[in-house]
Specification:
By secondary structure, the protein is α+β, with helices and mostly antiparallel strands. Helices cover 45% and strands 22% of the residues.
């Protein structure tokens, strides 16, 4: 029995003693002392006359020594197991940190793709965008303002659930699908009705899509569950509410459409819910309503309006903040 206890593969004392961990070192230091003590007692009993008391002492010393050895074995094995678990946890943490380091350059490299403005050659229009990432990390906001082949201007703002590289990639993909749908001739609401199938089933997205005729100021606008766009004229503001539900997998709702005209001096402002959310109210008024009053008093160029909108929002946000401003300057 002692031999099995000592020699059993992967579980015996010799296996534990050969471990490079703290438990193995402890057993190598104290194991011989535990065995030496009963050995010395046995040696002493050999030099005294044999009696019943001496025989009992010898038996107890050997049993006590083996018991101590067994207890020490269990202790050092538990100690080594704890060390192994700690090392495993550290390895997992290091792999996670490595993964984040590998993901960070991807996210950083995509940052210039999130918000694109390309309206070169369009006279009389002033365009500005602003972006502030939530909690220092990229999430699912992305936008584009671009001239289409027919001469009109398309603007798309997408806000996808989630944080990190994956939602960011899906947001860009969804934005580009909406833009390409309009390049192919679809209107804003048609584009919204076509792209829900592209989303993974665990993601939701809101989006605002518009087509603008730069010559006349005529606007067609569709909104999939997005915070209302604000139209600022000289004397009033108008909130363009969502024209349909959020985008999600295999969703092909029929979206309604806002149709209106921007006069010279009018400004259209679109933003993500990180800027102003209809769910948040102050004094019975929603944040977009309060922002609209602030914009009415401001006026001015698109860049100043975009800065004002971004300044209205939380400077340390938990969600991405995106602003798109189009102003008919002349």
């Amino acid at each position: 029995a002692v031999g099995i206890f000592m020699m059993r593969p992967a579980a015996g004392l010799l296996s534990t003693a050969s471990s490079p961990g703290a438990g193995g070192r402890l057993l190598r230091w104290f194991g011989p002392l535990v065995l030496l003590t009963p050995g010395l007692i046995l040696l002493i009993t050999e030099f005294v006359p044999p009696t019943e008391r001496v025989d009992v002492l010898a038996f107890v010393s050997v049993g006590f020594g083996l018991l101590l050895l067994i207890l020490l074995s269990f202790f050092v094995r538990a100690l080594d197991q704890t060390a192994i678990e700690a090392a495993t946890s550290a390895a997992h943490a290091e792999r996670a940190r490595t993964g984040l380091k590998q993901e960070a350059p991807v996210v950083s490299g995509m940052s210039e793709m999130f918000h694109i403005v390309d309206v070169t050659g369009v006279e009389g229009w002033d365009v500005a965008t602003r972006y502030r990432p939530g909690s220092g990390s990229v999430a699912g906001d992305t936008s584009v303002v671009q001239r289409l082949p027919d001469g009109s201007i398309a603007a798309v703002l997408v806000d996808l659930t989630g944080h990190g590289a994956d939602p960011a990639v899906w947001a860009i993909r969804l934005r580009d699908l909406l833009l390409q749908s309009m390049v192919a001739g679809a209107g804003p609401t048609q584009a919204l009705g076509l792209v829900g199938w592209a989303l993974p089933d665990e993601l939701l997205a809101s989006a605002i899509v518009l087509r603008l005729d730069p010559a006349t100021g005529s606007v067609l606008l569709g909104s999939a569950g997005h915070p209302p766009a604000i139209v600022v004229s000289e004397q009033e503001t108008m909130l363009k509410s969502p024209t349909g539900p959020l985008l999600y997998l295999e969703h092909s709702a029929l979206y309604e459409e806002h149709e209106f005209e921007l006069e010279i001096g009018d400004t259209l402002v679109a933003f993500s819910d990180g800027i102003a959310d209809v769910q948040r109210t102050v004094g019975g008024r929603t944040e977009p309503e309060i922002l609209a009053d602030l914009l009415l008093a401001e006026g001015g160029v698109a860049a100043r309006t975009a800065d004002l909108v971004l300044g209205f929002a939380d400077p340390d946000p938990s969600d991405d903040q995106t602003v798109v401003v189009l102003r008919r300057a002349g």
